Amino acid sequence: MRHHVPVSSIMTKNVIALTRSDDLERAELLFKRYKIKHIPVVSGETIIGILSYTDLMRISYAELADEDGNSVDSVVYNMFDIEQVMVKDVVTVNSRTSIKEVAKILADREFHALPVVDDNTLVGIVTTTDLLNYFIKQI
């Protein structure tokens, strides 16, 4: 296994992102449409937070519906905005960070995703799934 392979070689480059003006219903739609679990929140190209599907589920009543068949989630989602639910102190790495260092951060901090930022601009995201797929190819 190569020792200093940069995370840029395994990260997702076409990042789905939210802005602080997006609502939580849009976030849920993006999570489901793209089958992802983490969405960076940006102001321009600068990351200001990250929202996980788990964060969203913590505030909702998943799979519950009222008598009309409308999701209770939309009522709950209207009580919060993106900034209230997202994690604000986001740990990031740059595109030259080694895969080994990324794996160490994810394991030590018990995260499942790290935004990749170069010169204050979001350029990608790397997840535990990306790491596992990389390691599987090495075996």
From TrEMBL:
Entries under InterPro entries matching the protein: CBS_dom (IPR000644), CBS_dom_sf (IPR046342), Diverse_CBS-Domain (IPR051257)
Keyword line: CBS domain
Domain CBS: 11-67, 86-139
Xref: PROSITE patterns: CBS
Family matches, as Gene3D superfamilies: CBS-domain
A family per Pfam: CBS
Designated name of the protein: CBS domain-containing protein
Organism of derivation: Seonamhaeicola maritimus
